[in-house]
Specification:
The protein is of the alpha+beta class. 35% of the residues lie in helices and 30% in strands. The strands form two sheets. Strands 1-2-3-4-5 form a five-stranded antiparallel beta sheet, covered by helices on one side. The protein has helices spanning 16-33, 85-88, 94-102, 115-149, 196-203; strands at 2-5, 39-47, 50-62, 65-72, 77-82, 155-157, 163-168, 171-177, 182-188.
Amino acid sequence: MKTYTIDQVNKNQLSEYQNRDLTQLIKIREEINAFYPCQIYLNFDVEGEKEYYHHAEIKAIYKETEFYIKYWEHKKKYLIYPKDLRTTFKNIDTYTLRSIEENTKEPQQIGVINLKKLVSWFEYHLSVIDLARRINEENRKKEEIFLKSIEGLPVNWDQNGKSGEILQNGILFKFTIGATYISKKIEINYKVSNELESFLKLSKNEYND
């Protein structure tokens, strides 16, 4: 997908419907620009040498962080949000993000826009991002420490590269590395005949692989 600013696009290449949609965005941008600078970006799908209009959006930069700004006509409210944090942080999941957002005080929704309201939403999201970054780093370190602990062991990895098992002396250690957790399980994995001799060896810890 290719992205252009509104000034880089020839509006004659767009359909009547697309231009009508763009006209509405320009109006919203002007309302926002009265308080805080923002820009309209148009996104195009690329197929071979041809480009096809996909959608347009308004973006603003606050403290080096990119935010999207939308206006819900049916609710008469502005919506401000950053890009999906799950694409930014690998060791964060949807449940964790939802928990962070629910425990971070959210500003009132914006009906009539002004600078104070915009900044309140920017700061709210920055607080969420900061906490998500810290949790992501904690989870990343836990994963790093675990991977270091199994270095040199005969790990049989699954194809996904996120789970595996280690079999030694009839004891099976299984693990799965998730975005926010590492699950571990130990199982007895002796494969022996159902004979008394096998039982006696196992009970005396004399059985080897």
